[in-house]
Design brief:
With about 625 residues, the chain is α+β, with helices and mostly antiparallel strands. The relative contact order is 0.09.
Length: about 625
């Protein structure tokens, strides 16, 4: 394909804009996928590493909300340390258990829930009979235990590989329920499964049966809901009841079984209420760590579940709440990625932090009102996209900075170093033209064009490069600026960047040094040596008013000087050539520099300048007067 047919290479700015668009698209899609994946796991109730963080944040919100008052009609009859000491050890005999049940039954409670496992027949049949008789005198429920292998059915209901029911000796007509508790990754009880699937069917939980017996209504389970009488509660996945402990141990009204047997605690307080009998003695081993108490007795946890079902004050974490969590994770993930990618780093980070803090604050307020929004999910949804986008943006901007630095370095080479430095400090330099009296020099390497025919293109370019370096170094040393290289010539200004009282003297000194250094370069160059007088340097220099300005279009400009002074300096090259001189210096420049003609150094003459009506006094320096 020809050069004309090739597509133009993208500019650095276009390349950066394209890379930025690709980065934004990738960041948005990546954040969307990340948030959606987290939301999918949350909606399905899958265990993830976030569960430990969620557990810690849930406990924090529980402590912030503080303890609550449990229902007044709920009482725990505790088989406490005093009861165990009275028995002379643990476990408590079934004869004593029968007496406790009979004593409670005298108060005529709505239901007695016994959180004690009687899985086998006792050693004393008469004790089992006594306990069976006591249970038959009231509405009671006994505890059963399930064994799980971690599997669940398609609807999320936990599957029990075995179910241990109470011994038939205690009365086959006494209801029983599963007392197992669902703990999170940190070992903290968070849910109570209301139903358990077994090989023989579905078994109800201890708390569900107790609440139903207390309400005198059978429970009705539908998708994500349980209704007992006229009270309906939303449930979590797999018919799990979220737990919200009321406080530390004994927050729920507790009566010692020993005091009840001794008559020091009146049984009448238990009338028409729900009574849960269970072990609270330290040696019982049935304790759980909660936000309010590291060793909360299991019987109080079950009592909490029964209270939730009868009063409706459980935490709400149903499919709708989980859907809001998932939607928030997607929105926060995409929003944080776009904020980090689009906004400046400071405001972007602040916006992400404010959005995250806002969701966490809203979650804390909702939690205080009984709605369990996830706290760990939005943190994870925001954290990874924000980090990846920050790293990606930094990488992209570093590459752009490197490209800009390289471009700036190249552009600096397109301008004299001093001028490039001035423009970098003051981008508005010469945005408006400036009038100033300064020296202007034109240099020309005469005879080089003819010599280049012998050198060829490659060596010609190399020789010009060396000559240009020589000119630039000598001029810059004296504070001048080469505004334009023209093949084997150049236009030089002094005092163009800033006013300089010695600019005229510096211009004359630079001209004389250029003549000396150029002659030395020609003499030392193997390629140019022997060129003879045909190859030499000529300089025309004048001093006067010029207009310093930017010339060119809006997209392509260069700094230059215009005016009669520039034209005269250019014409003085011809004057030098006609006089066979190396330097043609106007008297105005010599006087501005404070120079005086010394015999044999300069020749003064009046020369006609093409384009001017008046002749000009010119000082000429001839080759014979130049010394190295």
């Amino acid at each position: 394909m020809s050069e004309a047919g090739r597509p133009a290479a993208p500019t650095p700015d276009r390349t950066f804009r394209l890379a930025r668009r690709v980065f934004l698209l990738a960041a948005s899609l990546g954040a969307l996928a990340w948030g959606a994946w987290l939301g999918h796991l949350h909606l399905a109730g899958r265990a993830t590493p976030l569960d430990r963080l969620e557990s810690a944040l849930t406990d924090l919100r529980l402590r912030l909300a503080g303890p609550r008052t449990p229902p007044a009609n709920l009482t725990v009859v505790a088989i406490d340390d005093a009861t165990v000491r009275r028995e002379g050890g643990f476990p408590v005999s079934r004869t004593t258990m029968a007496r406790i049940v009979e004593r409670v039954a005298e108060a005529r409670p709505r239901v007695i829930a016994v959180d004690v496992l009687f899985l086998e027949a006792g050693r004393q049949p008469e004790a089992d009979s006594a306990l069976a008789v006591a249970l038959g005198k009231t509405t009671a429920i006994l505890a059963s235990a399930a064994v799980f292998d971690g599997s669940a059915s398609e609807d999320g209901i936990p599957f029990a590989t075995a179910l241990h029911r109470p011994s038939p000796k205690l009365g086959e007509d006494v209801a029983s329920g599963v007392v197992n508790v669902a703990e999170d990754a940190s070992g903290v009880p968070r849910h109570l499964p209301l139903v358990v699937r077994t090989a023989d069917g579905v078994a109800a939980s201890f708390v569900l049966r107790a609440a139903a017996l207390a309400a005198r209504n059978d429970p009705v389970l539908s998708k994500g809901r349980v209704q007992i009488g006229d009270r309906a509660l939303s449930l979590d996945l797999g018919y799990h009841l979220p737990l919200r402990p009321y406080g530390p141990r004994r927050t729920i009204a507790t009566v010692s079984a020993a005091a009840l047997l001794d008559g020091t605690a009146p049984a009448a307080a238990l009338s028409d209420g729900i009574v849960v009998i269970g072990v609270t003695a330290l040696g019982g081993g049935d304790t759980f760590a909660t936000a309010f108490d590291p060793v909360l007795p299991g019987v109080e946890l079950l009592a909490t579940g029964i209270a939730h079902l009868t009063t409706g004050d459980a935490l709400v974490r149903d499919a709708g709440v989980r859907q809001r969590d998932a939607a928030a994770s997607v929105l926060l993930a995409v929003g944080s990625a776009l904020a980090i990618a689009l906004l400046p780093p400071g405001p972007g980070l602040i916006l992400v932090l404010l959005a995250t803090a806002g969701w966490l604050a809203a979650g804390a307020i909702a939690f205080a009102h009984g709605i369990w929004l996830s706290a760990a999910l939005p943190l994870a949804a925001v954290g990874l996209p924000a980090l990846v986008c920050a790293v990606g943006r930094q990488t992209l901007e570093r590459r752009q900075s490197a490209r800009v630095a390289r471009s700036e370095q190249v552009l600096r080479r397109m301008q004299p170093a001093a001028l490039a430095e001035r423009l970098a400090r003051d981008p508005g330099y010469l945005a408006e033209p400036v009038a100033r009296d300064i020296p202007v020099l034109f240099v020309d390497l005469t005879g080089f064009t003819r010599r280049s025919e012998q050198l060829g293109p490659a060596r010609t370019r190399a020789m010009l490069k060396t000559f240009h370096d020589l000119v630039d170094e000598a001029v810059t040393l004296r504070g001048g600026v080469v505004v334009n290289f023209m093949g084997d010539g150049a236009m030089i200004l002094f005092g163009a960047l800033d006013p300089d009282p010695d600019q005229a003297a510096h211009a004359v000194q630079a001209a004389e040094e250029l003549i000396v250094r150029t002659r030395a370069w020609i003499a030392d160059s193997p390629v140019l040596h022997g060129a003879g007088p045909a190859l030499d340097l000529r300089i025309g220099a004048h001093y006067g008013p010029v207009i310093l300005s930017r010339l060119g279009s809006d997209t392509n400009q260069h700094i230059t000087a215009t005016g009669d002074t520039v034209n005269v300096a250019s014409r003085l090259l011809a004057v030098a050539a006609d006089a066979h001189a190396r330097l043609a210096l106007s008297a105005e420049l010599a006087q501005a520099a404070g120079f005086e003609r010394s015999e044999g150094a300069f020749e003064s003459r009046t020369a006609a300048i093409r384009g001017r009506s008046q002749p000009l006094e010119v000082w000429l320096r001839h080759p014979r007067a130049t010394t190295s």
